[in-house]
Design goal:
Elements lengths: L1 H29 L5 H23 L5 H15 L1 H14 L3 H28 L1
């Protein structure tokens, strides 16, 4: 178990550092109020997790440790949006369209509501 946690943790470290560097570089290069840096890493991370899941399903990704390093570790550290996209992809693939709609809609709505609520609480105190 400790080995698996270290594999995921090292992937997460590399993903998080990559997210910071890519997001900062893109945002500084485009000089815009729109968060292009975060937008890019979210979409690119979703693309990567789709690639990694596809390679894993075909048996071309190596062993389970590589899959965990790349998907849970790197992509999870690069952006949690990729994990969200991967889970939604699995729901669609399994034909769970109701759960897909609920998970997607509620995650976005409640996530935004929670962020607003947390921000509001801090402003009140």
């Amino acid at each position: 178990m400790l080995k698996v946690l270290l594999i995921i943790g090292s992937g997460s470290f590399l993903g998080g550092v990559s997210r910071y560097l890519a997001s900062r570089y893109i945002q500084n290069a485009l000089f815009s109020a729109f968060p292009y840096g975060t937008f890019f890493v979210n979409i690119f991370g979703s693309f990567l997790i789709g690639l990694f899941f596809g390679l894993s399903e075909r048996g071309n990704l190596g062993n389970d440790e590589w899959r965990l390093f790349l998907t849970v570790g790197f992509c999870g550290g690069f952006t949690t949006f990729s994990a969200f996209s991967g889970e939604n992809l699995a729901l669609i693939r399994d034909g769970s369209f109701l759960y897909f709609a609920l998970y997607s809609g509620l995650s976005v709505f409640l996530g935004l509501l929670a962020a607003f609520g947390g921000n509001t609480i801090i402003k009140l105190f």
